[in-house]
Amino acid sequence: MSSTISDRVAQVRRRIETAAIAADRDPAAVTLVAVGKTFPPEMLADAVAAGVTDLGEIRVQETAAKKPVVPAARWHLIGPLQRNKARRALELFDVIHTVDRPDLVQRLEYLLAEHWPERRQPILIEVNVGREPQKSGVLPEDAATLLTTALASAHLEVTGLMAIPPQTSVPEESRRHFRSVRELRDRLQDRCGAALPDLSMGMTQDFEIAVAEGATMVRVGTAIFGARA
C-alpha cells in the first residue's frame, strides 16, 4: 500500500472530522468519495486499502477499464451521463449523482424495468446552482418538476441533490452556493413530501465549507491522489 495515499486519506478524514465537529455535526454522517479521474487503478486500489469505501468517476468508459482490477468499493458516477451510455452506467455504478433531465430519468427507468426489475437504483438530482450555461444540471426553479418525475419512477431511489458551484480561487465564495443547495433540498422535501438526506457537494478546494453547510458526500480527488496531469 502506498503510504503517501494512506497518509493523504487520513489527513482528509481528519479535516472532514474537524469541519463536522465545528458545525455541530456527526463526522460519520459525511461520506468521503475519492475521485479517481485520470488516475490508474493501482492508485484507487491503494485508496481502498487505506480504508476508502467509495470511489467516484467522471467517465463510464474509464470506469469500465478500472473496476475489474480495483478491490470492492461503492462506485459513484459524478460526471454527466448521456442516454446512450445509461445501460453501461447501470452496470458499473452503485450511485448516479448526475441525473439532470426528464429524458434521462425515463431512460434509466426503462432500462431498470427491462433488465433489473428487482433493483432500486440510488440517484441524485444534479442542480446547476451557478446557472452556468456550459454545465449540466437542472436549474433550481425546475428541480421540483424533475424530482417529481424521478419520484414517480418505480426503480429509481432519489436520495438527494448534487451540485458543483462555479469555479473560484476563493473557496469561501462557494459557501453561498452550498447553502442555497441545502435550502433548495429543504424546500423540495416539504413540497414533495420525500426524504432527501444526501447532499453531494464539495471538492478538494472547498469540501470543509461544504461540510459546514450540510454536505453528506464530499468528492475529493487531488487531496488524495495528487495533481492531475
Layout: helices, strands, pairs:
Blueprint lengths: L2 H20 L8 E5 L5 H9 L4 E4 L2 H7 L7 E4 L8 H7 L2 E5 L2 H14 L5 E7 L15 H9 L4 E8 L11 H18 L5 E3 L6 H6 L4 E4 L1 H4 L4
Descriptive report:
The protein is α/β, with parallel strands linked by helices and 229 residues long. The protein is 41% helix and 17% strand. An eight-stranded parallel beta sheet has the order 7-6-5-4-3-2-1-8. It is built from nine helices and eight strands. The protein starts with a helix and ends with a helix. It has helices spanning 3-22, 41-49, 60-66, 86-92, 102-115, 143-151, 175-192, 207-212, 222-225; strands spanning 31-35, 54-57, 74-77, 95-99, 121-127, 156-163, 198-200, 217-220. It is globular. The model has no long low-confidence stretch (mean pLDDT 96). It has a single domain (3-225), classed as Alanine racemase (TIM Barrel), CATH 3.20.20.10.
Keywords:
229 residues; 8-stranded parallel sheet; TIM Barrel; alpha/beta
Distance between the termini: 22 Å
Q: How does the helix and strand content classify structurally?
A: alpha/beta
The whole-angstrom Rg is 17 Å
Taking the sheet with the most strands, its summary is: 8 strands, parallel
Please give the share of residues in helix: 40-55%
Strand content: 15-25%
Spans of at least 5 consecutive residues with low confidence: none
Name the helix and strand elements from N-terminus to C-terminus, one letter apiece. HEHEHEHEHEHEHEHEH
Q: Which strand order spans the largest sheet, edge to edge or round the barrel?
A: 7-6-5-4-3-2-1-8
* Dominant shape: globular
Q: Helical element count?
A: 9
Instruction: Please name the CATH architecture.
Output: Alpha-Beta Barrel
